[in-house]
Amino acid sequence: MDDRPRFRLSIRCPDQHGIVARIANAIANTDGWITEAAQHTDAEAGWFFMRWVFSLPVDAEPALRERLDELARDLGMDWWLAGADTRPRVVLMVSREPHCLSDLLARWSNGELPMEIPAILSNHRDLAPLADCYGIPFEHIPVPREDREAAFATLQARLAELAPDAIVLARYMQILPPTLCDEYPERILNIHHSFLPSFVGARPYHQAFARGVKLIGATCHYVTEDLDAGPIIEQDVTRIRHDDGVQDLIRKGRDVERWVLARGLRYHLEGRVLTHGNKTIVFN
Amino acid sequence: MDDRPRFRLSIRCPDQHGIVARIANAIANTDGWITEAAQHTDAEAGWFFMRWVFSLPVDAEPALRERLDELARDLGMDWWLAGADTRPRVVLMVSREPHCLSDLLARWSNGELPMEIPAILSNHRDLAPLADCYGIPFEHIPVPREDREAAFATLQARLAELAPDAIVLARYMQILPPTLCDEYPERILNIHHSFLPSFVGARPYHQAFARGVKLIGATCHYVTEDLDAGPIIEQDVTRIRHDDGVQDLIRKGRDVERWVLARGLRYHLEGRVLTHGNKTIVFN
Amino acid sequence: MDDRPRFRLSIRCPDQHGIVARIANAIANTDGWITEAAQHTDAEAGWFFMRWVFSLPVDAEPALRERLDELARDLGMDWWLAGADTRPRVVLMVSREPHCLSDLLARWSNGELPMEIPAILSNHRDLAPLADCYGIPFEHIPVPREDREAAFATLQARLAELAPDAIVLARYMQILPPTLCDEYPERILNIHHSFLPSFVGARPYHQAFARGVKLIGATCHYVTEDLDAGPIIEQDVTRIRHDDGVQDLIRKGRDVERWVLARGLRYHLEGRVLTHGNKTIVFN
Amino acid sequence: MDDRPRFRLSIRCPDQHGIVARIANAIANTDGWITEAAQHTDAEAGWFFMRWVFSLPVDAEPALRERLDELARDLGMDWWLAGADTRPRVVLMVSREPHCLSDLLARWSNGELPMEIPAILSNHRDLAPLADCYGIPFEHIPVPREDREAAFATLQARLAELAPDAIVLARYMQILPPTLCDEYPERILNIHHSFLPSFVGARPYHQAFARGVKLIGATCHYVTEDLDAGPIIEQDVTRIRHDDGVQDLIRKGRDVERWVLARGLRYHLEGRVLTHGNKTIVFN
């Protein structure tokens, strides 16, 4: 319908009169054409959130950016403008379990996940062949128990070289040090294999089995220093029965982990996630 | 946050440049404050749909309506403006099965369904006591097989007196005549006890049992002359097992019918449903 | 197919060789005809659980009971035999919120819940009219904050008179004293409005909102002295969005509470629930 | 708990008195130990279905088989006894879309799908690299439009050599000839990308989009001569929205296809599926 370059704009600001009109005018005055729009007012917090997708004439981006800068000053607004077809650089980090990695690679290869994958990093060598299948560089950075600090320094240095837009812990079974969490705020996604806030920490399926819950779940969240407590992007559950043992929970849980991580990552890649405090707004 | 009267505006028009800006300006210029906004562009059909909720200063509504009339001419746009707390008049029609009626009345009484119920009409007397419990007038309009035409004339006349904004067929087990369907386009909601387009017509649970499906469903749709073929507002399903007989399907199906009808009706009452051809846009 | 009286038998015993054959022979030798059978072996715990439904010739029940007593001694087995059409006496306890009560009464009246309801007890008068609609005696037993002990003594005495097979806390917003919990082990069902073990205690929807979860749930469990920690019978969840405020969570949660309580209660009434430690086996 | 060989037994026979006792005795007399048991009586049809898992002493299988042969004559019973750890030979057939194949291979490699895969057959070469990744032989058997008959003769001959226990059409976009369907009754599984019986035939997602349904689904069924009408093994659905275009339906549908095919295949491999007429009993 429209062959011009497409952009997506996200904004976040204190709620106030006339925001929509001012943004809409900025876009209309740049001859933009809006094709998707979602917004949210958090009435309690008094904040406004928005994600719009629109096309612009070639070369109109700088003028729009200028106008958005002015509006940002007036409205006290954070804003992010990106090409709608941007493919962020995403580093995947894994340990030994292949199910999340193989799912992400299959979706990436299908075109479902708009990203570049400069590298897959792992503290084990097990998943190197899977990376090879999809032609992605695999790097082994061991994390020996007795020398975690040095290992994480190496890892952090290597990440800095890779310059990722996002990092995905696709069942990377190590707790990242605070310094690494802080370097990539709201850019590290983790999949936790429980329906948080239930069963924080280690072996959540064993915890779920012991408690006798009737559903198990998984949670995709941004990583913060506070373990398993970062802003939740996506969650889902699946039903279990009394005849499911721990191994069945692990098997059924793998499916939930896959869906939840894939959906959460897609929302992130498409710029659908905004945060406010420890909560997310997900325009999906 | 804002004690002024709140309105909701829905529009539908061919997609074109600058719609959002023009509507947003119309609202901003009337000193409106937008609190909810959802829109949809059907790129294939080239149509634009929108639902916004905003507050206005007291007495500002006429000016906005004038401005919207102008825009409607320019943009070829249909529009509906209503107070956000409007409670439409809804006539409920039932036969003998209480499950949908009792659910709707419980939700209405809870405040979940913003409507007035001037009357419950039925071709049987069975549900009169349930209507009494909630203090709603119950009227018996029999539909004898040999004289359906006269019965429906009586019914239609009575409906005209009741002047409903919407009519809900809450398991009203009669096919309405075309003349009645035509009088209330997109204002008669039916709950069909199958996941349409599967199992159109009579005894869908028996059809589902015979086919051996693993899920059964229900569909809330606008009634048109074409039986079970109107625009779908909401659908859902529930899982069945090989040991569920037809009676179990009927029992499990009652739950799905309740959820689906209640959700579909709420979307309708809150002005969240727009149609385009035989499809709905549901801003939920 | 078979007009003879139908029974259901549940057993629980340490797992050992030949249990099924011995029970099956006991039933075959009494000329029983099995129509439903479900069993479960907890391999880790080494326990066996079973629920069978069968018909017997008139007057054959005593002989079967005798045989089961012998088997119980041999196998170290607990067993429960009941007419398959038994309708347990169930006292419903409520506070002010009608949604669970109206749902249970509608299902009871539909025939979905095979029980007698000798009385509805409440610490408030609000739901008396709803009880009246369905012709169930309503009794007001206030629980003043300053004299809870005496109030619960009155309540416990009244329950003793009512001699219930089960008690359902259908949003009864009081914590029962241990002495009452102990009198009805595995016979008091509660609906907790969260997906336990998340959000134990007061105001779970507010807790869920604050944490920013993407699904909310409800849990039906047996009441024990340990608040919200008894054996879980049933759970379910529903999806929420960033634009759902606490009031929306409460509204959406009401639906989940209804399903979960109705399903959990039905399993209990039909003798489908066995416990082992703090977990349940649910033959559904 | 028990290191002896484990077996699973499925039976199907007209319902009659004492079946369970007779089978249980046959197993007990062979010193068998039952660990899983599920049965179903279709009261309407008067048929009985059963699946038991048990351990036997080494070398006890022939005696049990003899006893089962006798019972089969008495009861008019079909029966299947197999080692519980049997890994059937399964040929996968695909066209160009990788999503089902990559999912099945990942699950197979994980140990979730107990099968051997002697070959992947395809009418295209596209998925050869994926087969290579997992070390499975890939064979290209083209099906040119002008010479389908010869192509299918080649295919059928090759299948005969491969001697599969089951064949999975993992998005094999060709209609198999009746002669091939007949050779493998209840042994060819297909994944159809709609919630059957809706949207039979070609391009079901386009049909679903045109009809405006609110959920899309997938169906795993045994292939019969009658296209998309064989016994249904498993189905599921996922929610779609008005802003999902046909491409979104295809994307979301891929997930449902994957779950449904993987679950249906697992049930088949574990001997959990019995048929009766055009319906399945699935002991899951």
Automatic annotation (TrEMBL), chains A, B, C, D:
Its EC number is 3.5.1.10. The keyword Hydrolase applies. Gene3D superfamilies: 3.30.70.260, Formyl transferase, N-terminal domain. It is an enzyme of class 3 (hydrolase). The keyword Hydrolase applies. One of its GO terms (biological process) is one-carbon metabolic process. Belongs to the PurU family. This is Formyltetrahydrofolate deformylase. The lineage of its organism: Bacteria, Pseudomonadati, Pseudomonadota, Gammaproteobacteria, Chromatiales.
